Amino acid sequence: MTQTHIDLTALKQTAPSAQAAAEANARWRVADVAALYELPFNDLMFRAQQVHREHFDANAVQLSTLLSIKTGGCEEDCAYCPQSSHHDTELEAGKLMEVGAVLDAARAAKANGATRFCMGAAWRNPKDRHLEPIKDMIRGVKAMGLETCVTLGMLEDHQAKALAEAGLDYYNHNLDTSPEFYGKIISTRTYDDRLETLERVRDAGINVCCGGIVGMGESRRERAGLIAQLANMEPYPESVPINNLVQVSGTPLEGTEPIDPFEFVRTIAVARITMPKAMVRLSAGREQMDDALQALCFMAGANSIFYGDQLLTTSNPQAEADRKLLQRLGISAQAAQHLPADDHAHHAHHEHHEHHAHHGGCGHCE
Ligand code: SAM
Ligand code: DTB
Ligand code: SF4
Q1: C-alpha Rg value of the chain to the nearest Å
Q2: Where are the beta strands (DSSP E) in the chain?
Q3: What's the pTM?
Q4: Rounded distance from Cα 173 to ligand 2 centre (Å)
Q5: 227 with 274: CB under 8 angstroms?
Q6: Cα separation, 339 vs 214, whole angstroms
Q7: Which ligand has an atom closest to residue 83 CA?
């Protein structure tokens, strides 16, 4: 592979334009990411393990629990999504949940051992009147000692700021796939729309959770294109969910040829190598994976999972089964990190992790 990461400190004394050019060259080219994918499997895994162990406890995994706080009836046409009103998936659309019911679910997630609670809404974008109850949810969940994450669609500047003021730790907004493949999956909003929301989230001082989906019929080059987009964000996301498409009947992607499991593991490994300090989350699609495949994903550098019997509208492995799996692998649940919203520089992230990784797990997995 061509070495893309050059020593920028050596360029400190050079003219600003030369330095800018050098920094531009330091970005991951799609070809470089594709070259990682091309490595023999064992070599790729070895490299991913090296990078992972440099920055993380290789035997700790962070547990996030998801809740759909507003289900279905979404006006976007994402081809993978059971919640789009463009597809006939027989999913009943609901209203935004009451704050009390959301907090009950968060309490249960915490009692079960989760350290982060992620609330998802099937919206193209939230209306301002939705943000008041959502801010109460964020404050309430935080007061329980859980990290907070929401995913509500596109945001305006003032909305990102309002969420930051409520103390939101993470905003999830996925690029989903490469710019080239994106048009085959979504027509109702652009790649740039997604990037703009991500910038607003970053500017508001909220940690960025951004990843994508594989197994949608994209090529390896297009998977590499997604990873390059994520890795070239400045800074790259603190949290990178890698979803394997959950095929839901009635969605246009039902019947897509599933991705080769080893190609999925490769995607995790490539994400780990290109975004060394990010939490890489083995996300949707775990229920369709056996234990051995999940173990390979952890070896490839995945260090976070969705934990709890339900994702948003589809099912996830039972919490009890996950606890058993982690125990069999000698993996402990990572304690909460409680990143301050304005303290998400990657070096700080690293230090927080190092500090907490050695201070026990949830008590369920050890
Ligand atoms: N509506 C908001 C949005 O799209 O940003 C938030 C909720 S949306 C369901 C969150 C993410 O879930 C999507 O970006 C997509 O990556 C993932 N997702 C949705 N349906 C999926 C499926 N069938 N399989 C895998 N991932 C899926
Ligand atoms: C993400 O990347 N994956 C999660 C979360 N962010 C919101 C959602 C997965 C959804 C899977 C399909 C469903 O359950 O509806
Ligand atoms: Fe709506 Fe999000 Fe589903 Fe797209 S992924 S249809 S924006 S809920």
Answers
A1: 20
A2: 60-70, 116-121, 147-151, 170-172, 207-209, 212-214, 239-244, 279-282, 304-306, 332-333
A3: 0.89
A4: 11
A5: yes
A6: 29
A7: 3
